[in-house]
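Data availability excerpt. The first of two example chains:
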Amino acid sequence: MFSTSVLPQRFAYWVALRIADLGYFLGDRKGRKAIMKNLRRVFPDEPESRIIFEARWVFRNWGKYLTEFFRFSCFNETYFLRHTSSTGLKNVTQPLKDKRGTLIMSAHLSNWEMGAAYLSVKHGLPVNVVAAQHVYDKIDKMFINERKSKGVEVIYTHEAGRKVMRALKSNEIVCILGDRDVTGGGLEVEFFGKPCAFPQGPARLAMKTGAALIPGFVLRRTNDSFVVQFQDELKFPEEGTKDEKVKAVIEEYARRLEQMIREHPEEWPAFYDVWEEKWEG
């Protein structure tokens, strides 16, 4: 972790790729097996060579992500001006102008941390992220400090309901990962042709507060710059019960996430069987 913050960035990437290759070939066999199984569901008709190629790059891009996360405090405004851009930014800012608050539902895809930092550093917007508290205090403090170095406030998952509602009612932005059911209370929707549990919290919070629910995904370019894609708002159906409306929104989010993964499978670091195993963090 220390070396990633002091090495030149390109060399840090090179080191990360070498370590990632070792992890792929010799280290995390369980993770490699899970990645390949997940990718096989995404691409049922692709040859094995394609699955192997994408799986190896999942490991490599994960190494890059870790390198970038532990360099966050080194990324100043100039870095974000040069290395980040976005599409659909109005989808985030218009609800703030309308005093609704914006709830961005992202996913474990590429370097998702960059999205919140981009909004805070490059556009000066009030940004909160919902994150799990690490079991080790020193590591947890390190994670919080990295995020706060970019002006991003952290809301722990175990106290998210009350604090997220307060932030949205204060017309702020809240970023939350919407692709992994960490509580066991998720809702099953079809995902790549098989039922998969997705968290209900983001949809229910948006419904309760009236905040705009915006899918937002960070994508890595080949030169290791980033584009943040803020998609059109997820709208609740006018008809149906609350549960039916929530399910409809989660189903639409799942469809959009499917498309992103099909287009960028090498950026999907799901080191567990998404459909059969509970994510342990």
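And the second chain:
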Amino acid sequence: MDNWRLLISPPARGAWNMAVDEVLLDATVCGDSMPTIRLYSWEPACLSLGYAQKVKDVDLDLLAKYGWELVRRVTGGRAILHTDEITYSVLAPLTEPRVAGTVLESYQRIAEALIMAVRALDIPVEMVTEVDTTRSAKGPVCFEVPSAYELTVDGKKLIGSAQSRRKDGFLQHGAFPLYGDLRRITHALAYDDETLRAESGEKVLTRATNAEMVLGKKLDWDSVAKVMVKAFEEKLDISLVPSKLTEEESAKVDELITTKYAAWEWTGRF
């Protein structure tokens, strides 16, 4: 059993969350940090775009009206509205055997930990092993269709994840929506008319779910975090050591917010 680093971050802005993940990724690659599991949330709500997603998918006026923020991820995929959720990230050098192998092999290892955690919450979750191509979607919403090794309940996507391998490092993060109206994401996206917006919202409900919709009750964030920590430790055979950002890491985060994640040159690049 190896020691890994655990960070449980307070609710924060999207640009800060993305900058922290990148700084921690660099730290693990350089050997300045142990491989890391991070659990976090977002305040205010934030729409994140996949790395190459077009910013024209976003209705910037509506986004501002609701007081939501916008950020671009380094991972691929489509838009996610981060609110009322627990987000996880796994960061490690590619030499770490638990993330080695193909993208799908590492997805599966992490998915097994997520399955253990979610089932411990009495949610009857399943892992997608084969993607149903008949349900493919070309729209901007990430949660419309599950990908391989993502988690579903009764065929509806519960946890969406995305992975990036850069700088000899491994980053995977994902969102586990706990409660709230999943249709809210359509209020931040661009549609030709309000009928299409409403139809898209209803489609989300047929293809995605959250913990509250399955259990009929809200789960406490801290309680879910504890369950996830235990599952990551058991399934990855690691011991998680609670930690905080160092002063040097915090300074790098602040710089990266300014130069990248809060800069339109990054967010609006596509």
